Amino acid sequence: MSKTIIAGIGSYVPERVVTNEELTRLMDTSDEWIQARTGIEERRYAKRFEETTATMGAEAAKIAIERAGITAADIDFVIFATLSPDYYFPGCGVLVQRILGLKEVGALDVRNQCSGFIYGISIADQFIKTGMYKNILLIGSETHSYALDFSTRGRNVSVIFGDGAAAVVLQPSPEDGRGILSTHLHSDGHNAEILSMPNPGFHCGVHNEQWKPSVPENPYGSLFINQELLDKEDFYPYMDGQAVFKKAVVKMPEAVMEALNQNGLAVDDIDLLVPHQANLRISQMIQQTMGLGEGKVFNNIQKYGNTTAASVPLALCEAWETGKVNKGDLVCLAAFGSGFTWGSALMRW
Ligand code: COA
Known about the structure:
The protein is α/β, with parallel strands linked by helices. The protein contains eleven helices and 13 strands. The strands form four sheets. The chain has a five-stranded mixed β-sheet, sandwiched between helices. A four-stranded mixed β-sheet has the order 8-13-12-11, with helices on both faces. Strands 2-3 form a two-stranded antiparallel sheet. Strand 12 (330-337) and strand 13 (341-348) form a beta hairpin. Helix 3 packs across helix 4 and helix 8 packs across helix 9. The two termini are 18 Å apart. The relative contact order is 0.19. The structure holds coenzyme A (COA). Residues 29, 33-34, 37-38, 114, 155-156, 159, 195, 239, 241-242, 244-245, 248, 278-279, 282, 306, 337 line the site of coenzyme A (COA).
């Protein structure tokens, strides 16, 4: 069976830079607090009424397609990972199919938040290894800034997240030895609500009383969204940051070690680890606990914040563009996030 390579990679971030200082004008926070706790200096926000998750994803895809040396007509499957889709349904995959004028190929949306790109790589890898598809377009894209609570109430979440997109084209490897060595996916739903956006939603409060909607007067009234939700402004993401932090620093290294062990490799063999850009302190802790040397963990959260499904490919793209990823390098991608879901992808570039 042929291995899968990343044949082309591209990214797109909105022009608008939002500094920590700008956020201090909206909520009780400070540049010092944000930098000390997260490492984030600035992030990008999409241009309202113009840019969306799908349009930014399409821009990133155009670059990835060109760099892969193919055209849009060669794409034979689309995978789109996001938690901030343009529409509740249909997904962003079909919107990209339309924007890029792709053939009537399959389009799959992945709802795995921060680990969405890793899950997408794994899905693409299975299709390519079996010979089903030859040019898979995988996109991670987010527009968080359209639905964050910019008051002090939401500051623990809103200072962290940013907008952006990145995409890759996956193909069968032209050479022995190069390509994805393995992918490893995990989940644990016990703490699904710890990092979540339950509303609007179809849950009716069955998983958690806290989010139980009041019974509407009309027995057929919407349980998805109602006036009470709007009045209480109960439609923002929720996060218990410390609980997420504690799990992330354990589960990401575990997924990396699982990949290394499966392939008979050691930590020292890694040329570059590209972790999900959740928090600079998480990346630094992983580097320290795993004993990864200087320059072996790539971070760009300082400039973009946490871009969820876009974060791993956005970092990988910059690492590649700046010459930190070269042919033959052992590159490991790892992510952890809402769900919880997490995983890793190990590849010989
Ligand atoms: N500015 C200023 N103060 C803030 C703040 C902000 N933006 N956000 C929270 N605080 C305050 C809290 O209200 C709290 O105040 P209190 O002590 O008076 O109650 C204090 O800072 C400490 O809050 P805490 O949540 O314990 O801080 P923390 O050190 O855990 O840092 C995170 C918060 C969110 C930065 C951190 O927990 C984190 O990054 N966790 C991982 C999150 C993550 O990775 N999410 C995405 C996963 S994919």
